Amino acid sequence: MKCCKPPVLPGGHNHERRRWMKVGCLKTALLAIACTLAIGAGAQTAGNNIELIVPFPPGGSVDPIARALQNGMKDSLGGEALVIMNMPGAGGTIGTARVARAAPDGRTIGITTVGPLTTQPHMAKLSYGVDDFTYVCRTHVTPQVLVVPESSPFKTLREFVDFAKANPDKVVMSSTGIGSLPHLAAVEFGQLAGFQWLHVPSKGDSDAARLALGGEITGWVAGVQTYVQLAPRLRALGILQSERNPALPDVATFKEQGYTLNSAGWGGLIVPKGTPAAIVDRLSNACAAATHTPEFEQILRNLRVPQGYLPAAGFAAFVNSEYARYGKLIQATGAASTNK
Question: Engineered SS bond to 110: which of 53, 71, 274, 281, CB 3.0-4.6 Å?
């Protein structure tokens, strides 16, 4: 900083020149100290916040979960605020990659889901892998159900499977695309039960519902939220879980009907690989408290989903199991990337 350059004064004014230099430099030094203190204070304030990256748009299904965690974790973290940053794009992989690149200091965490962590890495060359994160906690699960139109003749999974085996070219199922969770659930069901089916990708659950109600598809695997919204016009043949969902007690499980198939959407908190264990434990404990608050449990009831919290070690084991499982299924569909 060039602070002490004196003005050009006529000859004979050396005394004034020296006085200016002393006063001017003193003012500049004081200003520099004030600026340094202000910057330090600002940095300290910013350091009290934790950035929570949500790799999906505001208003999506993950957003209510993130905002409930934002409120619920604050007290457990000694008043440190979680600042939500939505970073959507590429099916959630852009924001998830941002977490992988962050410093492993606990100041940047992410909430991401099954797709960016366990299916898309098998189908595309990404800048991260499943081993580039430390897993903090699973925050929620979203069970899936196999649904058919209310006008369908099928009342049970057994009836559906028997027809599919007898008519391999007549069962048409939809999903949101090759490699999507509903598609992989249907693939696994076909493998497990031993039947063939035709796949018609749709633009989403609303489009699949239109196709089903119009008689263009036999049925599809949908999230429980979709089923609840369309229940008057749809029938759930089974929920892809080992236990019944308390919010849908009349829907029998696949396991009850002889098919040991579990498939659900899920999400959880992640931090960059290398984050110290003490920080991970602190965040996981805060997550445990937040996912059991009345506010959070009300959100679960609204979404018709069960409690899904898992601590750090359990979540890490779960993610690795899901990653291996979906890798095999994606390989079977022919959708696996050759450029990984």
Answer: 53
**In this structure, is residue 149 part of a structural domain?**
yes
Domain end call among 257, 285, 304:
257
> Per the structure block, which two tokens stand in for 215?
């008689």
Note the residue count of the chain.
340
- The verdict on 244 and 197 lying in the same domain is yes
Q: Do residues 201 and 210 make contact, with C-beta atoms less than 8 angstroms apart?
A: no
Q: What are phi and psi of 12, to 5 degrees?
A: 85, 0
Tell me: the pLDDT tens digits for 183-200? Answer: 999 999 999 999 999 999
**Domain span holding position 271:** 50-141+264-333
Q: Which CATH number do you get for residue 247?
A: 3.40.190.10
Q: For residue 164, give the H/E element and its range.
A: helix 157-166
> Most distant CA pair in the chain: distance in Å?
112
Beta-bridge partner residues of 81: 49
Per-residue pLDDT tens over the stretch 14-37: 444 454 444 444 444 434 433 333
Q: Give the tens place of pLDDT for each residue, 63-115.
A: 899 999 999 999 999 999 999 999 999 999 999 999 999 999 999 999 999 99
Residue 47 has pLDDT above 90, yes or no: no
Quick check: helix, strand or coil at residue 147? strand
d(CA 316, CA 200): 33
